[in-house]
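Q: I have two molecules that I believe assemble together. Could you output structure tokens for the complex as a whole instead of separate predictions?
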Amino acid sequence: MYTKEEENLIVLASFEALTAKHLNVLYSGFEKTLPDFEKHGSFLIKSVGEGVYNKIRSNFGSLEYRTRLFNAIEARNITCVTVFSPDYPERLKHIYNPPAVLFCKGNVNLLKDRLFAAVGSRRSLQNVLKQCTAVVSELTGAFTIVTGLADGGDTAVIEGAKKSGKIISVLAYGFDHVYPAVNAQLLKSIEENGLVVTEYVPSVPPKRFNFLERNRIIAGLSEGVLVVSAGKKSGALNTAAHAVEAGRSVFAFPYSLGITSGEGCNALIKDGARLVTEAKDILDEYGFEYRPEKARELTADEIKVYAYLKEFGGAYVHVMAEELEIPAYKLIAVLSMLEIDNFVVRLGGNKYSAL
Amino acid sequence: MLSKITSFALKGLEGVPVEVETDINKGMVAYDLVGLPDAAVKESKERVRSAIKNSALYFPVNKITVNLAPADLKKEGSHYDLPLAVSILKASDQLSADTDGIVFLGELALDGALRAVTGILPILISAKAKGFTRFVIPAGNSNEASYIEGTEVFALGSLRDVVDLLTGEKAFAPVAQRSFKAAQSAQKYGSDTAFVRGQKVAKRALEIAVAGGHNILLAGPPGTGKTMLARCIPTIMPDMTFEEALEVTKIHSVAGSLSEEGIVTMRPFRTPHHTATVVSLCGGGNAKIHPGEISMAHKGVLFLDELPEYTRRTLESLRQPLEDRVITVARAGGAVTFPADFILCASMNPCPCGNYGSAYLTCSCSPAQVQKYRSKISGPLLDRIDLQVEVDGIKYDDLTGESNEESSEEIKRRVERARAVQRERFKDEGTMLNANMGEKQLKEYCRLSPVCENILRAAFEAMHLSARARSRIIKVARTIADLAESQEILAEHILEATSYRSYDSDKI
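A: Yes, here they are, computed for all two components at once.
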């Protein structure tokens, strides 16, 4: 099922000591289909050390190692998409140090779809997350969405795309691990309904710097990146930087002053990122026709409450009850209905905000 | 000569008749007490000896044998002093009056005075049920005894008085009957919903909780008035009936925590600290089994502040009593059942730093931390808490001041109406509240229209509710419908009920 060239590449990618950069050098930027140990051996020895290099060489030639590796990959139901495979996204080949092998779980065909990335930081505001879910859900009409697996922003993105199954989650570690652990269930559901991708062999644990490396794949796979939330120093900003480097468009949600989780987004807009408040802003850019879902007709009370929340951004139930002169218990029911239909979002402490 | 005097032992809240038999023989001077007396009863020998001597009576210098029958029941407490003394006086021929059918209870001081003892009320009630109607008790317990009809209770000050009563030398009036009057809410409780400004959602939730007997969890940042809200619960509960008051008083009498009044007129509000142990919460003890906090909260409120701070073991021990409304405490000496029918009100911070949802401070916790903090409370326990409400994240200071808030009295009236509806509905199934409905009753009384079913389904999807929230939401919706005096559960009732589910959500 894998060609000889692919097999060699997978074996080389399985050595934890060899990074994407090493493989790029070894294959001369993947213009060659065979590793040139003669020419680049000295570079590798300098980089990884002679002992490791010798071990790599001997394992590379070992049939036993090879069998063990492919058995392990098969046992985990992993599909390997190598840079030599026709399934490998063309766009990804053109970034700096493209991954040699993508270890995949799920629907590999999604890689052929039009891809768009959406990322957010872990600490994000509730209403932004809800808005993000809504926007992403509309984007799935045109794109398959690429993101990570962190809680907060990424989870909200997954939430929006999960239903359509058009979701690719890029991990920064191997399939034997889950990080953050709370998202184990979520990860499983993406494996079943979408696609999970990583450049690391199953045994690689989560390491801090791998997350930044991973971001180049998120940006590289996609035609554009939406930054939902980002603090001043945020992984989401790093993804945006990779996107700029790879020549992809960057989009960002705007924030009002004084919100730390939005400072990065505002900075991106200042630097020329496209400002996004609804899915239309992105779809227009790529020439898709935007067809909004037909909203339900609201009742008189619902209109009153929704308009109030729109005007003030967010309000406590007891304040609204007084200002709108609706008894609290009625107001609670109205707000619940609006929440179910995605007009408002409930923040902590009985505060609601319009979407 | 042999004498027999009747007294009572307490087994949990049940009184058991005890015969105090004294035999005085010629022989070596001795004073033996048999029949499984505990330390306090053994020591009574010395008190009885001095009390008799100091009451201008004579303590026999012979071989005295006292037996407490039944001999296999452990006798605890100091209330055997009086029956012992009377029994010795009779056996030594200093007292010849008829004592048949009279129950003697009381502790003696060395000077012969009678001291108040614990557990008088449950003994009186059990004894009356067993056909005893005449009692001699310490004067200090007279209030407690004044609510039992059809009894003749003499509350006396000293052993001398008891002898005078029996010989007829002096006349004493029996304790006068008093009629029961429940405490009128607010003034006496010192709390009132009118004092809490804002917090409309939480107050509404309290109203629903009390109306349907639901347990409630209040979550909110520190200093937002959670405790103050909890203290309002007893003020909106219906007044105690006499039967309820007697039941509660029995427990408090055994625990020895009765006030001067002698009867509990206010619904209990118990606040055990989070260092409480399982035994202090559920009841227990070595020889005498004491009721725990959950029984002391019977017919009232058990308030657990900072719920996640309690040890897991303590919290899990609440599960069975929350379900059965009684607790059976089993010890080597036997098992005792105490009632434990209370509304559980718990409070907690929404996250480790406490600021999640605060209007002023930003929460510094990651979603994972918040999730971990909340998961300290186990699913099965949360299952028994029908209402999970967030309080407004506003400072207490902003809440005080001018306002025209509803008073407890007004809310109480609505609660009473809703309870009347439930009494009518469950009249063939014993006294029951919506919260106690089982699967069968849910099917029978909480049928949902297709519209409601659809809304509920949509709510589950939109709000990420866990499956086990379903029956809870329906029960709460039933209570909301009862408050609105609606026969059917309507869409608005379901919608309101779904909003009291903050901690059911799979997601933060």
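A: One point stands out. The mean pLDDT of chain A is 91.
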